[in-house]
Amino acid sequence: MMTTRNNGLVIQNLTFTKRKVTFLKNIQLQAQPGELVLLCGASGSGKSTLAAILSGYYPLHGGKLQVEELTWEGQNLADFSDKERLRQIAVSFQNARLSFCMNTLREELIFILENLLVPPSQMPQIIARYVEIHQLESYLDQPFSSLSGGELQRAAFCCLDIMDPGCYVLDEPFSNLDDDAIEFLQGLIQQRLAEGKTFLVIDHRLDLWQDAQRFYVLENANLTSVTDFYSSTTQDLFFKAGLLGKSEPTPKIKSTTSPLLEAKDLTIHFHSSQGEKIILQDASFSFPKEKLIALCGQSGCGKSTLFKAILGQCSYQGTITYEDKDLKKVKPSTFFGEIGLVFQDPSLQFVTNRVLDEVLVGTSKEEEKRGRDLLEHYKLLNDKSRSPWTLSQGEQRRLAVICLLLHGQKLLLVDEPTYGQDWQNAAKLMAQLQDLCRHGVTCCFTSHDRRLVEAYADIELRMENKKVSVVS
């Protein structure tokens, strides 16, 4: 039985069901002021559902909630007004793109302060202080649509921080960030903890949160509390929940092959409110055939933009050749059957209302069984009748990759394939991509996760200083 205190966040015997499915059962959780608490579990286990309950989204928008106690600083969350609740507990979305109501960061911060009834005369000074703290001055007037996933996550955290809540609930806050940005935000979190703020962090990356005061593992709707990160019992629990893996990837292929895709003197730039932004300038590189290629670089360096250029979705100077054909001289549709893309935000690419239908779009009868087998392999077969948009972020990512695996493309461009994945599902996805490369496919994936890059990539390319170079 958990000892209840009158301060901080206290959850006692919380059960949540939706569509006759129990997502959380008799949950007990506690997070005190100045305490960092990690909530982890396999992809789709219900972690974001708990965050949605804390924000007030559930059960207002569906489901049935039964709870003995759900309090902040000794007060029932249901007794807070919407504004008071926002002041006390601020929740970040797993998908940062869904966090914003306005078009730019400046407009978003003004909107937040307006809702908090801050006098207009004080707003410019407050906004200037927080964007300086978060080093986001250059992003204030850029449209959110032009920002990378990592830049959006940094902006989302700034929007939470300006509310000055007592408790921060962060859902996968570092999933699209490079190592430098992660280190910077970890420093900010430590500052807020020293001020007595509470942090409940939802994440699969255990290595980033080893200094947490306590850990909760969510599995099969049940929550287990652990305090000793390094004990064998805790490590076994993490492994059982899919958060750690013991299997080794297959050996990398080091032999040299001819290029499938080659770029020469490639320049990509576009105009923004801040002036011209150059992504690449006179860059030359290649994607060798049948290799698993990691494309790395800082958040916002232009990795996703490079994928768009390859697909003919943005203009460029120089040449990109695919199988010795200049992509500028052929219609993009010519290569749609040979080059596949998984978006950084997979929810933007779904076209049907059922998971199974999404997998089977454009497939033959012979491929239908393989589609079902892949859904079962990636633990999505039981969700075959659900809408893709109701899946968790990690489940959406797995579904998007499955959809590509069935169509026989020669080149796969996969933007952050393991975002939102627990370790075992991430390893499955990477092993699947690796196996495709052993059978004639070339795959290029972006990632900020050094563990996966070093474990699986045959070749690492790095975007830096407007160039693309091979990392030896």
Automatic annotation (TrEMBL):
<dbReference type="GO" id="GO:0016887">
    <property type="term" value="F:ATP hydrolysis activity"/>
</dbReference>
<keyword id="KW-0472">Membrane</keyword>
<dbReference type="GO" id="GO:0043190">
    <property type="term" value="C:ATP-binding cassette (ABC) transporter complex"/>
</dbReference>
<keyword id="KW-0813">Transport</keyword>
<keyword id="KW-0547">Nucleotide-binding</keyword>
<dbReference type="InterPro" id="IPR003439">
    <property type="entry name" value="ABC_transporter-like_ATP-bd"/>
</dbReference>
<protein>
    <recommendedName>
        <fullName>ABC transporter domain-containing protein</fullName>
    </recommendedName>
</protein>
<dbReference type="InterPro" id="IPR003593">
    <property type="entry name" value="AAA+_ATPase"/>
</dbReference>
<comment type="similarity">
    <text>Belongs to the ABC transporter superfamily.</text>
</comment>
<dbReference type="GO" id="GO:0042626">
    <property type="term" value="F:ATPase-coupled transmembrane transporter activity"/>
</dbReference>
<keyword id="KW-0067">ATP-binding</keyword>
<dbReference type="InterPro" id="IPR015856">
    <property type="entry name" value="ABC_transpr_CbiO/EcfA_su"/>
</dbReference>
<keyword id="KW-1278">Translocase</keyword>
<dbReference type="InterPro" id="IPR027417">
    <property type="entry name" value="P-loop_NTPase"/>
</dbReference>
<dbReference type="InterPro" id="IPR017871">
    <property type="entry name" value="ABC_transporter-like_CS"/>
</dbReference>
<feature type="domain" description="ABC transporter">
    <location>
        <begin position="9"/>
        <end position="245"/>
    </location>
</feature>
<dbReference type="GO" id="GO:0005524">
    <property type="term" value="F:ATP binding"/>
</dbReference>
<keyword id="KW-1003">Cell membrane</keyword>
<dbReference type="InterPro" id="IPR050095">
    <property type="entry name" value="ECF_ABC_transporter_ATP-bd"/>
</dbReference>
<dbReference type="Pfam" id="PF00005">
    <property type="entry name" value="ABC_tran"/>
</dbReference>
<feature type="domain" description="ABC transporter">
    <location>
        <begin position="261"/>
        <end position="472"/>
    </location>
</feature>
